[in-house]
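User: Here's a chain of 274 residues. Predict its fold as tokens.
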Amino acid sequence: MKVKKIRLIALAVAFLVFIAGYRMLALRENHQSQTKADGQKIEVVVAAQDLSPYTTLTKDMIKLKKVLVDEETKGYYRKPEEVVGKVCVSNVFQDEVLTDRRLAEDNAEVLGLSSRLEEGKRAVSINTDLEQGVSNNLRVGNYVDVIFTGTLKSSVQGSEEGIPAGLAMERIMGPQNPANAQIVNDSVGNEFSVIALQNIKVAALGNSFSFDSTKDYKDEEYVSVTLEVTPSQAAQIALMKSGEGKIQLALRPQEDSTVVNEPRGSVLKNYEGN
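Assistant: Prediction complete.
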């Protein structure tokens, strides 16, 4: 009986020791886990205010803040200079950690063509065929002149007799005007052409607005050309598109920014020896 009692006491003591050890181990693991979490609290770049899509980040829009990061937190930034100048691709809320999934470079394709336009410029598209588009030889970043060809219909006051384009232009704008224009002859024909715009940048071809130097563009085709122009030039192109005339693009040498200003000429002068 005495031996049995001793055994029961020993079992009870062993059980108590086990419980105490288990609790100590659990407390130690919990402490280590908390310590580890505290060790992952690092200083990262966060939004100092709510940010809308397409916002270009400046120093006053961001700040540094210590936050807990884990294995699922990726693509964060540690330095403000790493994000200044980048653009938000979605809404970002105040104190939200800025990551590479929320930001893009200012010329990234995901931001669309508007992010690539020079300040104050506009993008306007022209439908082109093979001839108008310089036989698919244009590339994004090239420069072109915009030539407009049309028909000028005018008549003598009180008469139905038509006046050739050359004489009509001379009456309205003076001799040899407008500059950079061509007619058939001063006394023949109603057709004319004029270099309406010069040194205009090609912003996009079709829906592509980037140029890849490693890509083979030999068989690349497009049916529209988007030009980067001023607001007034955009209005001029819209007017040219609205009439019966035709727009032709002339490719310029890439480094040639010369602006031509020549008096009105005549196609038939080539046959007159002049």
